[in-house]
Amino acid sequence: MLKIGCHLSTSKGYEHMGKEILSLGGNTFQFFTRNPRGGQAKAIVPKDVDAFLELAKNNGIDVILAHAPYTLNACSADESTRNFAKETMADDLIRMEYTPGNLYNFHPGSHVKQGAEAGIKYIADMLNEVIKPEQTTKVLLETMAGKGTEIGRSFEELRAIIDKVELDSHIGVCLDTCHVYDAGYDIVNNLDGVLEEFDRVIGLERLCAIHMNDSKNPFESHKDRHEKIGEGSIGFDAMVRIINHAKLRNLPFFLETPNEPEGYAREIAMLKSAYIEQ
């Protein structure tokens, strides 16, 4: 069965998100841990969490993905910005244990002219402080499009972070289709080659989730502008090959396309109808 869902608002709690994704035809979802621009997170309501866990158990929702706020920049030149990232992620990872065994994704950040090597060290330093041996949450580095001074524009940069993390068994990768295509990995014409490179550099065992997005911009544009499925430069046929690929088909797929709920329901239905059950 295809594990497919989209990004949902956390404003009404976990149980509401679970019911909403089921109403859209999905069986997994992504959510922000707090306002995507930063700030305090809503208090966890244990009764809401318990109701969600029961709903998930009864409806085949076996994984969810939390997304850190966009404002986190663990490799900023500014120490206070780095501290904000560290404190926020540490709090998020504590909160994630209310729904154990799930995924937490973040953008590695921008080194802001310090150079990639310095940025990579800052990111790894933060991860070494916030990741605990006892946590059940896997922290995912997201592949990035490479605009400006973003870290994560190449598989090698992500590998360099992983190599510096002491508890690296708690680290994985979320591959964003728009980002990798914009970064110069040709998933349209050479998906096998891209996956072989990922495996050689990072290891496919670390690939834990996929952000399923078309791209408004052409190949290797380094722009990062998501498009609806089948309406961008990646195209629907390439998306179908991705969800059915032997090395990817069992991963959870999360839509981050520019859509309202009815648009997400349509895309979920499109992808489910194109998925070949085995």
Quick structural overview:
By secondary structure, this protein is α/β, with parallel strands linked by helices.
What does this structure look like?
- This protein is an alpha/beta fold and 278 residues long.
- It is built from nine helices and ten strands.
- The chain has helices at residues 14-23, 46-59, 79-96, 116-130, 155-164, 177-183, 191-201, 236-244, 261-274, and strands at 3-8, 28-32, 65-67, 103-106, 138-142, 171-176, 207-212, 214-215, 226-227, 252-255.
- The strands form two sheets. Strands 1-2-3-4-5-6-7-10 form an eight-stranded parallel barrel.
- Helix 2 (46-59) links the parallel strand 2 and strand 3.
- Helix 3 (79-96) packs parallel to helix 4 and helix 4 (116-130) packs across helix 5.
- The model has no long low-confidence stretch (mean pLDDT 96).
Features:
8-stranded parallel beta barrel; two-stranded antiparallel sheet; about 280 residues; alpha/beta
How would the blueprint of this fold be written?
Elements: E1 3-8, H1 14-23, E2 28-32, H2 46-59, E3 65-67, H3 79-96, E4 103-106, H4 116-130, E5 138-142, H5 155-164, E6 171-176, H6 177-183, H7 191-201, E7 207-212, E8 214-215, E9 226-227, H8 236-244, E10 252-255, H9 261-274
Parallel strand pairs: 1-2, 1-10, 2-3, 3-4, 4-5, 5-6, 6-7, 7-10
Antiparallel strand pairs: 8-9
Largest sheet, spatial ordering of strands: 1-2-3-4-5-6-7-10
Uncertain parts:
none
- How many strand elements? 10
The percentage helix is: 25-40%
Q: Given the C-alpha coordinates, what overall shape results?
A: globular
**Would you tell me the overall average pLDDT?**
96
Which strand-content bin applies to the residues? 15-25%
Structural class assignment: alpha/beta
* Element-by-element helix/strand order: EHEHEHEHEHEHHEEEHEH
